[in-house]
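Apologies for my clumsy wording, but could you write out the amino acids of a protein and the tokens describing how it folds?
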Amino acid sequence: VHSNVSQGCQGGCATCSDYNGCLSCKPRLFFVLERIGMKQIGVCLSSCPSGYYGTRYPDINKCAKCKADCDTCFTRNFCTKCKSGFYLYSGKCLEKCPDGLEANNHTMECTSIVHCEASEWSPWSPCTKKGKTCGFKRGNEVRVREIVQHPSARGNPCPATSESRKCIVQRKRCQKEGKGKKNREEKRKKSNKDESKETRQESKGRAARRQNREQRENNNKTQPKKRKAPNKEQNLAPIDTAH
């Protein structure tokens, strides 16, 4: 350290030298040496740079270098991020992951191997042939399942998600769509016709009954009333029985 020590330093330095830069730092700042050419210059930082970790002491806070394969570290023996070409595992940087683990090139870490997992099979589908369920004796039926966990790079691959097998059904004729539609239309027309016929018959019956009732009422109004015949016994003269 050069003997020329100054008290009026800047950049967080408590004491400094024109030749060596910072010699000590203000409270809570970390002291670190930076190499410039053939000499080292002291600087004071609020946090340690990449490749260094901080240690606090009563008299000074210092930044120490991580191991050569660490990009960042918590202590010298515990890395938090590795340099390119290394994989992080339990605070260490490894060129190859241990057995039972695999290298994750996205996170650059050693992770557990994940195997594929599939759901249970669905029930077998109806027996079909060329998309139809009638008009044949031998067909195929299928069942499916879903992938619930995709595998990692070294995990067991996924099995088939569908199966097919032969099936036999009782042969039956397919009903033609046009013929079936025509039959349904004819039935509907016949039903409407029967209902209309019954409605017309009921209307005719009601009209006939009303006409008969009105005719009787008119006859009663136009027919003259009959007079009562005189009592014959009252018109007869008394018979003289004296002779």
In short: The first strand starts at residue 5 and ends at 6. The CA atoms of residues 53 and 64 lie 5 Å apart.
